[in-house]
Structures are given as C-alpha cells and as structure tokens.
C-alpha cells in the first residue's frame, strides 16, 4: 500500500506529512524514500529509546546509519543520521561549528511523530527552530498517525515544519487489509468515590488513589491474555499498581523516563519472550515502542486526548503469528464528576468513531 505513496504523491512534491496509522510502517516508508532520494539525511526522533529501534529498521533494509543522541555523536555525513531533537538542539545552541557542520547540510529531513510539532508551544517552536536551521533540506517529511488535531496556531507549527498531509493510511484500512489486529474495547464502569470534583484533585482521588479502580486493574490483568501493558499517566500511579500487584504475587516492572535505554530494551525483550507477563509504563511509551505480540492493553490513566489515546492503542494493534485480536481495557469514570465524565465520553466516542467493537460492563 506504500506504492501509492511513493509513486503518486511523494515524488511529485518535496515535503509534507505522511499520515499513517501506528503499525503501518512509517519507518519502512522512510527507508524507501531514502533509497529513492539518496542524499544526506537526518531522521529526527524525540525519545532516546527510538534511536536504536529506528537504526535497526534501516539496518534491516541494508541502510547503515549514524547516531546523534543518547551519549553518542557519530553522524553519517553522506548517508542517514538518526538523531534526538534534544541533542541536535543542544549542539546548535552550544555553537561547536565543527560538530554542527557534520549534519547541518543534510538535504533531507524526517520528523518522526511529527504531531509533536503541534503538541505545545515549547515543543512546536523547538521543531520549527530546528527545521529552519536545515536550510539545505529541500525534502522534509513528517511521519505521524495523528497530525493536525490541535488548535489552529499549533497546527500551523506543524504545517510550517513539514507541510500539509500528502497521504493517509487509516487503522481501518490496515485492519481490513490484514496488516493490523482488530481490537475489542472493554469499558468497565467505576463506582463513585468520595472526594473533590475539581481538577487536578479529582484526578488524584478518583484515578491515581482510587483503591477500587487500582485493584480492578490488577484483577483484570490476571484474567487477560498476555503479554500485557498497563499504561499510566503518572509515575505515582504506576508504582501504586505495581505494589498492589506485588501483594498479589506478581512482580510488574515499571518503565518511566528515568529508566535507562539498556533497561528499557531488556524489559521489552523479556515481555516479548514471555519472561515477563506484563509491564507498567508511563507516557514515555505512548509512542514508538514496537511489541507485535502484545495481547492486552490496559488504559489505567484515563485522559481525553485523541492523539495520546490513538498512539497508545497503536502499541497493541501490530500483527504477530497466532494473534487474532487484542483486548483493550478502559474505565468509565463518569460517576466521579463532570470532568472525568467528559474524559470518559471522549474516549468512548473515539473508539466508536474508529469502528471498534465496544463492550461495557461493571
């Protein structure tokens, strides 16, 4: 299905967003684009654990890459360099002309998870500043499943960095074509709790510290197919769930921002091999992590962001041998005030708009 992108859209225009659902092969498309437009290229990621994953995908297709980020400065001046936006930004800010000269003349640039250009003014402006520095980059591509979902100004930041959408591949297309696994969404109704209903106090009392809800998360995990991931928004919440699981005889590793790249890679490898039945992750793994055999996703953190929830869902839709569906467990927090009611309604609406089967129970 990428043939249409390569032939009909991309080579006719030198920049734009390639909107491809998570699991649809965005990095594969970047490899093909590089092989078709073989000029010095920088592939920008926003998280250090994505460096190795991206370099491995390029290597699989016979393309060796350089690296800037995660403590390494080893660019490939004539080929592809995979770099974190933070390290590129700091290098430019530091003013080391010799280092800057090794990557700044790139003629092609990819922004992975390009929706982050519009995620916030700080992040968006950082992407814009970086984009402006690569003055020789005639070819500029944004890779994302969720572009142009913010306010008008934020969306213009993305437009300025990469251009408009050139091509779209949806979850529904990939599921029908057999490339992704169809999810079943189970929404569990949570009873009301005592406590404040204003933000952010309601989030702490009704989600993070909600004993009934946290016990139910672990109980659902015990019954669910594995491997599984519990997704949280806050480290405190992840640790609480891990402690409850420990009291029930299950050790669940917690992956967060401070977890080293080596430890992250080992934990993911153990989850894929079956050495770990489940792990708990914070928003550090909303994007980028690739676990094709994942069977269950538990949305423990709530929230209403369409971008974040689609990105999280994408962790579980990838195909693997013997995997025919993925179970997604969500929670309806409507009984705990107007704010959480709106958040729960937004997620339910999203699942139905995507055409997924939704089951509700108590």
UniProtKB/TrEMBL annotation:
InterPro entries: ATP-dep_DNA_Helicase, Helicase/UvrB_N, Helicase_ATP-bd, Helicase_C-like, P-loop_NTPase. One of its GO terms (molecular function) is DNA binding. SMART domains: DEXDc, HELICc. Gene3D superfamilies: P-loop containing nucleotide triphosphate hydrolases. Residues 216-362 form the Helicase C-terminal domain. Pfam families: Helicase_C, ResIII. Residues 16-165 form the Helicase ATP-binding domain. Keywords: ATP-binding, Helicase, Hydrolase, Nucleotide-binding. PANTHER family: GENERAL TRANSCRIPTION AND DNA REPAIR FACTOR IIH HELICASE SUBUNIT XPB (PTHR11274:SF0), RAD25/XP-B DNA REPAIR HELICASE (PTHR11274). This is Helicase ATP-binding domain-containing protein. It comes from marine sediment metagenome. The lineage of its organism: unclassified sequences, metagenomes, ecological metagenomes.
């Amino acid at each position: 299905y990428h043939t249409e992108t390569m032939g009909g859209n991309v080579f006719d225009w030198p920049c734009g967003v390639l909107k491809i659902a998570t699991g649809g092969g965005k990095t594969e498309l970047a490899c093909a684009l590089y092989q078709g437009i073989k000029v010095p290229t920088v592939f920008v990621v926003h998280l250090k654990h994505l460096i190795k994953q991206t370099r491995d995908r390029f290597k699989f297709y016979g393309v060796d890459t350089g690296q800037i980020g995660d403590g390494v400065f080893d660019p490939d001046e004539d080929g592809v360099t995979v770099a974190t936006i933070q390290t590129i930004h700091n290098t430019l800010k530091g003013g080391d002309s010799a280092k800057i000269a090794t990557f700044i003349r790139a003629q092609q640039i990819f922004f992975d998870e390009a929706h982050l250009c519009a995620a916030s003014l700080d992040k968006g402006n950082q992407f814009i500043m970086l984009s402006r520095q690569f003055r020789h980059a005639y070819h500029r591509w944004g890779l994302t499943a969720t572009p142009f979902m913010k306010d008008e100004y934020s969306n213009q930041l993305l437009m300025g960095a990469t251009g408009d959408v050139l091509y779209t591949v949806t979850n529904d297309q990939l599921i029908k074509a057999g490339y992704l696994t169809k999810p079943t969404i189970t929404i569990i109704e949570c009873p009301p709790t005592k406590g404040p209903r204003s933000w952010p106090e309601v989030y702490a009392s009704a989600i993070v510290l909600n004993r009934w809800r946290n016990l139910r998360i672990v109980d659902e995990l015990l019954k669910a197919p594995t491997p599984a991931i519990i997704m949280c928004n806050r480290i405190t919440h992840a640790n609480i769930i891990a402690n409850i699981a420990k009291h029930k005889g299950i050790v669940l590793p917690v992956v967060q921002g401070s977890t080293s790249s080596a430890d992250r890679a080992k934990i993911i490898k153990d989850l894929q091999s079956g050495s770990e039945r489940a792990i708990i992750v914070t928003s550090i793994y909303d994007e980028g992590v690739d676990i094709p055999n994942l069977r269950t996703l538990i949305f423990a953190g709530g929230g209403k962001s369409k971008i974040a929830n689609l990105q999280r869902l994408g962790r579980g839709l990838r195909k693997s041998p013997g995997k025919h569906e993925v179970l997604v467990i969500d929670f309806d927090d409507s009984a705990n005030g107007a704010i959480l009611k709106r958040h729960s309604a937004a997620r339910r609406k999203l699942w139905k708009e995507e055409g997924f089967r939704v089951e509700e129970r108590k």
